[in-house]
Amino acid sequence: MSSQPQEAPGPDVLRPRLPSPLQEVADDRFGRYGVGLVLKRDDLIHPELIGNKWRKLAPNLRAARGRTVLTFGGAYSNHLRATAAAGRLLGLPTVGVVRGHELADRPLNASLARCAADGMRLHFVDRSTYRHKTEPGTLAAVLRAADAEEAYVVPEGGSNAEAVRGCRALGTELRDRADVVALACGTGGTLAGLAAGLSPGQRALGVPVLKGGFLGSETRALQERAFGGPRGAWSLGERFHFGGYARTTPELEAFAVDFEQRHALPVERLYVAKLLYGLTVLAAEGAFPRGSTVAAVITGRPFP
Ligand SMILES: *Cc1c(COP(=O)(O)O)cnc(C)c1O
After folding, report:
1. Which residue pairs from 145-150 have beta carbons closer than 8 angstroms and sit at least 24 positions apart in sequence?
2. Which tens digit of pLDDT belongs to each residue from 156-213?
3. Residue 148: alpha-carbon gap to chain centroid
């Protein structure tokens, strides 16, 4: 057997569709204010590594160089499913550290079942351990318990410096195609990279889907790590989280169903629905000048 580490297949075997399509839509909730709406269809980049998950994972899979990839997520994490799918496609072992020790004794939900079917080894930890997972001592203990001490570790949501630099291309693809580029945010990694890729006259608008107001400092910290300092013009619209992650209301659900019918777009509910809803509110408030174009990044697709 060769002592050379085996060269992993590069993310090119993941065959992305880049640049992702830009689609104009006629929507009177924007049109009546003289605002154009375009959809940046990042959900069409890849059938299984969807949207920003492809952009964030591809550079990490390259950096892993065939090692086991270990990452973190909740029971319905889009990032865990994308990582598991990448593992299957590339022939890489993957380990998913899942929040919630009690889940170990229950039948897997559809999202985790998909991860397992893709060959991901699931390792459940209690919520306190999960909360402290970035502390070196806790992380080392988790890696030991998961029997994955040599693994390449990708943080929760996939947002590290490699991922942020990977998302810069989302911005460059949108250069001079819109005045405002809006997207829903979890960790802020996609926003941090996107903003860095835009041209000087453009601005990025992030809509956090989690409550807590921490995203501004997180995004600044991610840009510092990825680029050495702030990049691009970006701001946050913090009023559209609907109470927090995975929280919804009948109004938001009705909005999403209606948007799907109007534009034949499958609307992902955890992130994309909140973004699109927020944009219609902002348009009605006059937040976008007449004659301007808003690009909404469609970062994902509903599961299953
Ligand atoms: C993961 C995800 C996001 C959030 O991306 P961050 O880089 O963590 O802010 C947004 N939309 C969808 C559909 C996602 O799956």
Report:
1. 146/70, 146/95, 146/97, 146/121, 148/68, 148/70, 148/95, 148/123, 150/67, 150/68
2. 999 999 999 999 999 999 999 999 999 999 999 999 999 999 999 999 999 999 998 8
3. 25
Residue 13 gets the label, from left (phi > 0), alpha (psi -120 to 50) or beta, of alpha
The response to whether residue 299 sits with its C-beta less than 6 Å from ligand 1 reads yes
DSSP state at residue 7: P
Tell me the domains of the chain and their CATH numbers: 15-48+162-297 (3.40.50.1100), 68-150 (3.40.50.1100)
186 Cβ closer than 6 Å to some ligand 1 atom: yes
Using a 6 Å cutoff on CB, does residue 240 contact ligand 1? no
Ligand 1 close to Cβ of residue 208 (< 6 A): no
Whether the full predicted model's pTM is greater than 0.85, yes or no, is yes
Of 84, 60, 81, 87, nearest to 158 (Cα)? 60
Q: Which of 80, 185, 217, 268 to mutate to test the pocket of ligand 1 (most atoms within 8 A of CB)?
A: 185
Query: What one-letter code names the amino acid at 260?
Result: E
Query: If DSSP codes are grouped into helix, strand and coil, which group holds residue 44?
Result: helix
Q: Three-class SS of residue 241?
A: coil
Residue to probe by mutation, ligand 1, list 54, 81, 190, most atoms within 8 Å of CB: 190
CA–centroid distance, 6 to ligand 1, in Å, is 31
